[in-house]
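Technical annex, item 7. During the second reporting period the consortium partners agreed on a shared format for inverse folding records so that results from different sites could be compared directly. Each record opens with the tokenized structure and is followed by the designed sequence. A conforming record, contributed by the partner at site C, is shown below for reference.
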């Protein structure tokens, strides 16, 4: 759930063209319409003629409505005009004492001392290098430098402005409104904006415009510490970027390979339950598929391969024997997703909404329902493929990584027994209700959920 400030959100200084599309088939299932109250400029509304959700020209492209939509029905694309920057500071030559304070204060080397021959030595500013941060104006002891013709200067002494990246939703409103072109950058790692304290003019426009109040004052020490940490991550990202792309491509290949191996092993074995070691099979297949180009990575992966194995989803198959089924309807009564129905005089039919929880199996008086689960697992440094028969509700433990979780709410919306809830963007599980069907685990887009079956 996105928390939105009560502050007024002004339209950004940069003109923005917003192209949006709303999937009305998805949207019509939403009764609460959280996108409408979440919009900080009241641009989202319901068209009274068509009864469709629409967005008007007041939209600033902050994507809060998209983040608030529980059905992922809103897509947005924004095209920004060039930023309107503060004017280059103006220097009053008559007041300038050529003390050099502005030269030392300038972070971009844009200020220098010069003389035209007709005037005394004074400061000049290179317009191409100037980032309009206003530091020279603040350090000038004689007020010879004037800054802030577009935006008001409201500097709070001794502090710096920072972005709280836990509250930031990446709407980029601050980047569109900042007059200092070097002050707000967007991280390649976090994909969120961060502020360079050296270039920030502390005009507070970003703070006033932020719809989630993620921008605030902090001590300069903390601000520079945060900036240093983010820049370090960015440098490491640049160094590893090429390797990361290769690794991601290789992981996708491995995932495809595991799919092929699982299908082959499933076909080769007719037993109700089995477990077979496949370490050599997998490593040979990988060596062949990658043409021995990943020797170093493979030496690591044989020890840490379980990290990939653990996130490979289990293959679950449920079968209802039409010969055995007597159409009693007992399974229908206990099904948490109501996916079982009976068309008299035909036997029961299990629909596509089944979450393979196993609740229907022990209730069936004629053992007509069969549920099997196939998955990869690891023991020490060996890899196994296993098939097991599910004979009823499983018992387990719900684990979630709050660092990885994006609080998107997909798991909560899809939980068939309402075992999941969210408070202050933290997902929790009522294990008295949980049936450990693993549906939330398979749906989580960032692999933040893990169900450990006992």
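Designed sequence (site C submission):
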């Amino acid at each position: 759930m996105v928390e939105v400030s009560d502050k007024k959100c002004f339209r950004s200084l940069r003109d923005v063209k917003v192209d949006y599309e709303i999937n009305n088939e998805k949207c019509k299932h939403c009764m609460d319409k959280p996108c409408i109250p979440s919009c900080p400029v009241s641009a989202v509304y319901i068209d009274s003629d068509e009864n469709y959700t629409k967005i008007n020209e007041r939209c600033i492209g902050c994507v809060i409505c998209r983040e608030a939509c529980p059905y992922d029905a809103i897509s947005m694309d924004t095209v920004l005009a060039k930023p309107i920057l503060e004017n280059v500071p103006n220097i009053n030559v008559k007041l300038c004492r050529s003390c050099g304070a502005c030269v030392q204060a300038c972070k971009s080397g844009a200020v220098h001392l010069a003389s035209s021959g007709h005037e005394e030595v004074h400061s000049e500013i290179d317009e191409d290098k100037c980032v309009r941060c206003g530091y020279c104006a603040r350090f000038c002891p004689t007020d010879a430098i004037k800054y802030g013709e577009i935006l008001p200067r409201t500097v709070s002494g001794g502090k710096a402005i920072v972005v709280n990246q836990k509250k930031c939703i990446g709407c980029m409103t601050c980047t569109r409104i900042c007059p200092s072109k070097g002050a707000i950058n967007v991280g390649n790692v976090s994909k969120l904006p961060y502020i360079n304290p050296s270039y920030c003019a502390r005009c507070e426009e970003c703070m006033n415009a932020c719809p989630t109040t993620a921008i605030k004052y902090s001590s300069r020490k903390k601000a520079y510490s945060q900036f240093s940490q983010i820049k370090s991550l960015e440098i490491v990202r640049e160094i590893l970027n090429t390797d990361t792309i290769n690794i991601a491509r290789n992981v996708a290949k491995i995932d495809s390979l595991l799919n092929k191996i699982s299908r082959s092993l499933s076909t080769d074995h007719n037993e109700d339950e089995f477990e077979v070691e496949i370490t050599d099979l997998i490593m040979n297949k990988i060596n062949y598929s990658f043409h021995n180009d990943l020797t170093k990575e493979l030496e690591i992966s044989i020890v840490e391969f379980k990290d990939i194995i653990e996130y490979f989803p289990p293959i679950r198959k449920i079968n209802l024997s039409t010969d055995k089924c007597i159409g009693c309807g007992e399974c229908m009564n206990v099904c948490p997703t109501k996916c079982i129905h009976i068309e008299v005089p035909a036997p029961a039919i299990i629909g596509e909404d089944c979450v393979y929880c196993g609740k229907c199996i022990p209730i069936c008086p004629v053992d007509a329902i069969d549920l099997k689960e196939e998955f990869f697992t690891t023991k020490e440094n060996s890899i196994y493929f296993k098939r097991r028969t599910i004979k009823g509700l499983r018992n387990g433990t719900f684990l979630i990584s709050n660092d990885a979780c994006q609080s998107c709410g997909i798991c909560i919306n899809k939980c068939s027994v309402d075992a999941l809830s969210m408070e202050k963007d933290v997902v929790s599980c009522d294990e008295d209700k949980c049936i450990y069907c693993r549906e939330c685990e398979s749906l989580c887009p960032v692999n933040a959920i893990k169900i450990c079956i006992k």
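The radius of gyration is 30 Å. Confidence is low (pLDDT under 50) at residues 1-8, 292-303. All partners now use this format for quarterly exchanges.
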